[in-house]
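Sanity check

After download, print the first record. It should look like this:
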Amino acid sequence: MTFDPTAHRGVRYAARSGYVLVVLLATLTHFHFDSDPAMVAWRWHRALVFATSGSDVVDAARNVLLFAGFGAVWLVTSPRLHPWREVLWITFIGCVLSACVETAQLLSASRTSSVNDVTTNTLGALLGAAGVVMMAQVLARLHARATVTGVPLLTVAASYWCAVGAEMFSPLYRHGMNPWTGGSISHRLANALRYVKPFNVERVSLTDMALFAPGGAVMQVALVELGMGNGAAAWLVAGAGVLFSIGVEIAHGIAGQPIEVSAIVGHGAAIALGAVLGWCFGPSAAGRGHERQRARVLAAALGVLLVAWAWRPFLPRVSWQAVASQVTAVHLTPLGMLGTTSDLFGVMDVAEQFFLYVSIGVVLAVWPLRYRGWVANVLPGLYLAAVLEVGQMVVLSRVFDVTDLLTQCAAMAVGFVVARRAGCEPRGELLGRMRPVAGHAGECEA
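Expected structure tokens:
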């Protein structure tokens, strides 16, 4: 029953060429040709200077994010024989692609060539490819101990915590900026501490607490699944949640937004509450029913959470003009919306989408809804992502962005392929009768 869509040559070439096209769209749009030798020479000298201003840091983060996706897509469409050798090859390809793009930008009056970009693009390709290899190795070690749902819960918990961290760093409902946010990291930190907002119970976001608490619960159950004591896991997760909340809020302040004690308290309390709920109800839930029933609960819970993340605050746009404003060239261009911002918060939003959806691919690799047909394998996740992202057109304060949709689909494909390559065979149809795989019934093979 092994299914690997990237094993087909057509899919492999389509995925790679499609991502290269995304890179070209992101880096060569608004290309105004200018071949004046004097201007080309000036751009060449400017390109060789390393820059470290605030806008350069933001550009670096965008470049790393863009080419991390390139590295991940190229890796999952590569043979699985020598993964680390492939990582080196993909890093080289990323470097060559970046150098070609930056060279072409020397002939543009509106684009900026930079050695910074070549460096960060190459680093992104390395991190994306290496991240996929390490994820596969971790899954290969964990899947034999996935006794609750058949899905390694630590992978679900870790990806969800990363999404929570991205939301803490770039909150949906807090957009204010501190004055005088520039300068070095130490200057930014000192400035942020000058504008710390004290605790105010009215500033605690109940929406954030509802979204973050499941992260504490699933992490607690994941640690118990790995052999940690029930109470010890709860205390560890609660303490880690508080430290995590403090650390991300400080980073959020360094990025320029006010540090709020209310946010630290609310976020830490939500994760701790989730850990306590896992402590109280995790053992009974983990032993209730059979594995497929528990996997259904996990899949349904993840689906409900994705709806909540995508469509909050669940208020509709009240005019057709407001809805139509979501369908523009910027919204439909990969990285088009990201290019309209000058801070790190758009970058974190894209990262959040990846981490929210990658575990859906892992779940569907182990428990596909059906083996065949229009809901086979990873297809249900793609449908869900499309419905939720398009649905944001009619949700107040949400923005449709094709970049998010592409990121979500890529994340699920990466999670699905990596899980299968790590040795996780499907344990049965989630909506059908149990069909054990060859060898050991319902087990993943190492």
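If your output differs, re-run the checksum step. Summary of this record's structure: Residues 435-446 have pLDDT under 50 and may be disordered.
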